[in-house]
Amino acid sequence: MRPAAEAQAQGRTLPRSRNIYLVPYLLWMVLFVFAPILLIVYDSLFDVEGAFTFANYAHFFTPVYMKMTFSSFWYAFLITAFSLLVGYPAAYLLTKTKHKQLWLLLLILPSWINLLLKTYAFIGLFGTYGAANAILETIGIGRRQILFTDFSFVFVSVYIFIPFMILPVFNALEELNPSLIDASRDLGASPWTTFRRVIFPLTLNGVKSGCQAVFIPALSLFMITRLIAGSRIITLGTAIEQHFLVTQDWGMGATIAVFLIIAMAIIMVLTGTRSRLRR
Amino acid sequence: MNQLIRMLLLVLVLGFALMYGASALNSSEGYSGDSTLTIYNWGDYIDPDLVSEFEKESGIKVIYQTFDSNEAMMTKIEQGGTTFDISVPSEYAISKMKEENLLLPIDHSKLPNLKYVNPRFMDLSFDPDNRYSIPYFWGTVGIIYNSDMLGGRTFKSWNDLWDPSLRNQILLVDGAREVIGFGLNSLHYSLNDTNEAHLQEAKAKLNRLTPNVKAIVGDEIKMLLANEEAAVGVVWSGDASEIMDANDKLDYVVPEEGSNLWFDNMVIPKTARNIEGAHKFINFMLDPKHAAQNAEYVGYSTPNEKAMDYLPEDISGDTRFYPDPELTSKLEVYKNLGKKMLSHYNELFLEFKMHRK
């Protein structure tokens, strides 16, 4: 019996009273998932003065917000691409090491430190008189501006998000049956072909969930844009923060949030369900 | 089961005993009813000696709490959990709190020391007739610069910022009103201008400033300037005096075209219980000697005219923080432009931020 059908059959035989255990989950879903989304949609239908309007949606399609959306997606893409580029080999090497769990712990350890603290540390490291520039100077390259550049923004974001890429990829690699790799080698495939035709396709689900875990939060980054990029990079997250805290234009802020939710839903659909359908 | 009930009872009895004990202690210390005053102020924004002096003089116990942003303060007062008797919001927050009925009117007849306040700082657009607020400190927005890093150069005008030699040397404070404001000022327009053509002109001019702008940051600007990460900054005078304390190579100037004049005023929030005591405290702080002592400690500019006599010459004569009348006449207070205009200002600011070098 397939797992899904099995669960269904069990569900039918469960006594009614067991349903009571579902209440906390349902309540949680309604209160903290559905209600907030509905509230955001509701808020997005009012202008600054509290009058009902669809103008916010029209406003979203003006050049300012289109440019912002484009740059959000572009930087989120860059962050995800670099995370994958660094994260996949790291996860692969991790599965080959002797003390896997220890190395994994060491990689995850920095994510226990508060995000703001880590970001502040980078201001010091990347500053004109910081450690990074001191190294550049001793090896003869000389001081350059690192802080408040695109490079520093992508670097710090990748640093912050990389555990979320490594973990799912690592799990997928761990689940991979080693005999498949042996078989591939026995049948004469080169290491590259083995990777391309066997390992990568079989860990694709891990890569997909890793990309989701990085791309989606990267879309709505806001604090790092100011601290590390010096507000020279504006993402949709920054705009939402501004509208809720500074201008008090909750309608516009909520409208951007609605578009972000839609974008994320699309990404989830594109990267998620297809594999389940195939099964 | 029996044991459980006994445990519960014990906890309840202990709880009540502690509650009684706390209230007995509070009343013996003077913390009860009319004899306490809860002050809600910015961090490090009062001379602690003045608080103890006020306690001694009036017999009122002061409970002192601090906040770090107008928004956080307003939210807490709106919730009404704590009975704050005095708070010190900035002018735009005052006009917002007024609109939302979060303030109680102030009885001027209970404030004999009000006459010492410079009339220049009274009856302003954010609170006509000072019905809800009394000036506490004031300041400006200006340019702070490090001459050492710029080969001895000094600043006089907003337009000096556009000098091509300052490439990548300027830090701006992350405030839409401040940045659009100095853009307007540099064109000799009012910083409360709502004329669309003027605003677009100011934005176009600010876009040309982009190559010189290294970053637009928040409170970190103090640390970055003190560490000489950049040579020039556009900051509030209060921040400037803090930065100059940390690094004495820096100097501050209010540009000649004019600038913003900001206020932090004392108000009585609607959560107040000890309204009588709140008036006593405001009057105490308006006393010229106390105002002078406070200004010396905090380092901001006092609105108290008489207090100037008690301040040392090097403070009261410092035209960077007490500009001469000619310049002062060019300073403008932010008018409440309404949410729609503020939203528009913010959008222009976002466009400026997105403008690439």
From TrEMBL, chain A:
Keywords, comma-separated and alphabetical: Cell membrane, Membrane, Transmembrane, Transmembrane helix, Transport
Membrane topology classification: Multi-pass membrane protein
Boundaries of every ABC transmembrane type-1 domain copy: 69-271
InterPro entries: MetI-like, MetI-like_sf
Transmembrane parts of this sequence: 20-42, 73-95, 102-126, 146-170, 214-234, 254-273
GO BP field: transmembrane transport
Any one GO CC term of the record: plasma membrane
Location within or outside the cell: Cell membrane
Principal localisation: membrane
Family as reported in the entry's similarity comment: Belongs to the binding-protein-dependent transport system permease family. CysTW subfamily.
Name of the protein described by the UniProt record: ABC transporter permease subunit
Species whose genome carries this gene: Paenibacillus sacheonensis
From TrEMBL, chain B:
Main subcellular location of this protein, as a coarse class: periplasm
Short name of any one Pfam family annotated for the protein: SBP_bac_8
GO biological process per UniProt: polyamine transport
Residues involved in spermidine binding: 92
GO CC list: periplasmic space
Keywords from the UniProt entry: Periplasm, Signal, Transport
InterPro entries noted in UniProt: SBP, Sperm_putr-bd
Protein name listed in UniProt: Extracellular solute-binding protein
Molecular-function GO term, any one: polyamine binding
Subcellular compartments: Periplasm
